[in-house]
Structures are given as C-alpha cells and as structure tokens.
Amino acid sequence: MTKVIRDLWILTEDGTAVFSRIYDQDLKVQLFAMLMSALNSFAMEISATGISNFELNNMRFDILKKNKMLFIATSSPKFKKKFILNELDIISKQFFELYGSDISNNWDGEISKFTDFIKVVNKSVEKRVQSFLDNI
Questions:
Q1: Less Cβ crowding at N or C end of the chain, within 10 Å?
Q2: What is the four-CA torsion angle of 89, 90, 96, 97, rounded to 10 degrees?
Q3: Domain that holds residue 96
Q4: Is 117 exposed, middle or buried (0-12, 13-18, 19+ CB in 10 A)?
Q5: CATH at 83
Q6: Residue 2, in any domain of the structure
Q7: pTM: predicted TM-score of the whole model, two decimal places
C-alpha cells in the first residue's frame, strides 16, 4: 500500500513532541520538534499565519495548527497539499476526541500517554488511502 503520509509528528506550540510516527530512526524527535517550533515562531513574526509547509529534496512537510498544537506530516510533493492537510485535519480531530481539545489541562507532561495513538493513526490513514486508491 502507498503511504501518503510518511512521517507524522504532533507537537505542542512550545516544541514538545507528544507523538511521532517516523521511519528514519536516526532523526531525533525532540530536536526536530524544537526546530519546528522555532521555525513556526520565526514565521509568525513575519506572517500572522506562520509556516504552513516547506520542501526538502523530494519530501514536503505540511503543517496544520489546531488548538495550540502543530500536526506535521511528510509526504511526496506529488500529493496535493489540500489532500495532506485534510488527512492532518482528520488525524487532529481523532487526537482531540481521544485526549481532549486542550491537553494542557489533562496532561502531566508524560508523552507515553499518547503512545497508543499509533493504532488510531495507522488504521485511519490506511483505510482512507485504500479508499482513495480504489477510486482512482
């Protein structure tokens, strides 16, 4: 099956990665989270909306901001940004449904609380991608 979203991070605005599904295990998750938070803060100084996406080589990073969280996905540039952002929106809704829309009220800082979200992500994304591919 084609993976539309390759890597996925869910970050707090201050740069804490509460969840990640990454395939390059050499990538340091918390270092990436802090970098993305810093990039977003810098972009917000220039533009009210901050950073929404960027590309490196043959990989695009799309960013959805919701409830003071950053949902970041990597994908091939061949997939439309709108499609990836829709996937991130669905993932964010599932995340907030499961953990609440304001995790700062229910969260003690322990990221292991979010480990089981991998099951939701994998099941949900694979189901929608297969449906998309079946309709091509």
A1: C
A2: 150
A3: 7-134
A4: buried
A5: 3.30.450.70
A6: no
A7: 0.80
For the chain, the three-class secondary structure string (H helix, E strand, C coil) is CCCCCCEEEEEECCCCEEEEECCCCCCCHHHHHHHHHHHHHHHHHHCCCCCCEEEECCEEEEEEEECCEEEEEEECCCCCHHHHHHHHHHHHHHHHHHHCCCHHHHCCCCHHHHCCHHHHHHHHHHHHHHHHHHCC
CA triple 82-85-91, angle to 5 deg: 145
Query: Residue 4 CA to chain centroid, in angstroms?
Result: 13
Rg (alpha carbons) of the chain, rounded to whole number: 15
pLDDT tens digits for range 69-98: 999 999 988 889 998 999 999 999 999 999
Total Cβ atoms within 10 A of residue 87: 25
Residue numbers in the chain where pLDDT is lower than 70: 1-3, 26-27, 47, 104-106, 124-136
